[in-house]
Amino acid sequence: MPRVKTKKKESKKDQVIEELFKICKRKNNFVFHNDLVKDVCKKIGFGNPFDVTKLDNKTKLPDILVEHDYGVIHIGSGKHKFIKGIDKVFHDFEEIQKTIEWEYKKSLLNQYNSSGSNILSVTNNQRILHHFLFGQDTEFDDVDITKRPKTYFPHRTKTSFEYNFGKDAKLEMKNIQIEVDLTIEFQGTIGVFEAMLEKFRNKVFNEDVLKVLSKLPDGSLDMVYGDPDYNVGINYAGKNYTTKWNDYIDWYIQLTKECMRVIKPTGNLFMMNYPKQNAHLRVKYLDDAAYDVQDYVWVYNTNVGHSPRRFTTGHRSILHATKSKDNNFYKDNVAVPYQNPTDKRIQGRIADGHLGRMPYSWFYFDLVKNVSKDKTFHSCQIPLPLVEMLIKSCTQENDDCFILFGGSGSELVLCKSLKRNFISCELHPEYYQMILDRFDNNGKIKNEYRLDFIQQKKANGKGHHKKVLEQTANLFAQKEENDIC
């Protein structure tokens, strides 16, 4: 009687993989992101999305992948891919031809945990890995392992603990994730080191931005966003940073060079300025230094800066630069809803999981009005929905963003709400203090940091602000008149 091949019992993890595979097959795109994994896990009811793609050997593959001859690989930046050909993904172990007798010598941290990183560390420090790769030597034969300097591979773990302070106070933490970037051991002393970026994450510095950038390691950030002074005479609470044109462009190029250095190969840089300033940046540096440069346009209405000799300036340039063809960009984070959802072609795209179309390369956002709830006494605020779109377009939660100029602090508060790590600088002491106060006040703007007429209105219940409005209008008129883009 012929044997009947029985299918293994399908787990919820198998169901998640099956659904992911069907979605990718339907789209004819076999690359998928962790976000899709989380969505499918939520739908199926599987509580550990990070375990879905951990398929260590062929026996763990669900039936649908076996039937279609597909495996799964991780390709970086939160992305995975179904690969045709299971044998390309998994390699059968060969029989061991030779064994080496090894006298194991216990070291301080060898028994620390059973994680893969610790096993690699033990193998490395016992020199098993060295001997396997390069052959046996006698370099350390007469030196006991406890007297050798050792390094341990980075690892992460989750743990719970409690600590009592005398009789009345207790610190208790449950299921806390701890990440260790480097552990060293020498002569019984253990040192634990965190990565350099931890010194900068979610902090704003009252320092020059170039000084802070210079301290960051190469290729460490997911995004950099800059809205520098445009060199057109803006007054920032009594300070003016306008300089000679050539000196300004030299500074702008130097700033952008540092920004390109610190973004990852998958990272993105956005620099906002007037078109003339950005044109000089492209021609004199960025077009040669970047893998790709796109020029977007932010369009807005304005009632200042009119002239009988030219059209009124109502836009700014946003340069988008990348270091490689593999830059992260997430259409679903910023998709614009379809305007004709009843169209059959559009209905098909919606059925395939598309959330909308990619935004065009021009964006309309109103200027931050003086009466806006987000408006502070900062002279040149950028509308938050615009910055939010840029951040969401190329980052995910826990990614690292450098907001070059802290300004009013609105972009930093936005990063916190979007669960993005931020780094920022603000040289102006009054703006810097405002940012710190906003952090202490759950992002809210204290009355003292608003425009004078808003303060008076809140204090008196009246709107005596005509003079202040005229002064503000004149300020922007001067700025627009000086703009020769």
TrEMBL record:
InterPro entries according to UniProt: DNA_methylase_N4/N6, DUF6996, DUF6997, RM_Methyltransferase, SAM-dependent_MTases_sf
Q: Which UniProt keywords apply?
A: Methyltransferase, Transferase
Q: Boundaries of each DNA methylase N-4/N-6 domain copy?
A: 222-435
One GO BP annotation of this record = methylation
Which intervals hold domain DUF6996?
15-81
| Domain DUF6997 stretches | 88-197
Q: Does the keyword Transferase apply?
A: yes
Any one Gene Ontology MF annotation carried by this entry is:
N-methyltransferase activity
**SUPFAM superfamilies assigned to the protein according to its UniProt record, in alphabetical order:** S-adenosyl-L-methionine-dependent methyltransferases (SSF53335)
For this protein, the record's Pfam families field holds: DUF6996 (PF22515), DUF6997 (PF22518), N6_N4_Mtase (PF01555)
Record's protein name: Methyltransferase
Question: What species is given as this protein's source?
Answer: Potamilus streckersoni
Lineage, highest ranks first? Eukaryota, Metazoa, Spiralia, Lophotrochozoa, Mollusca
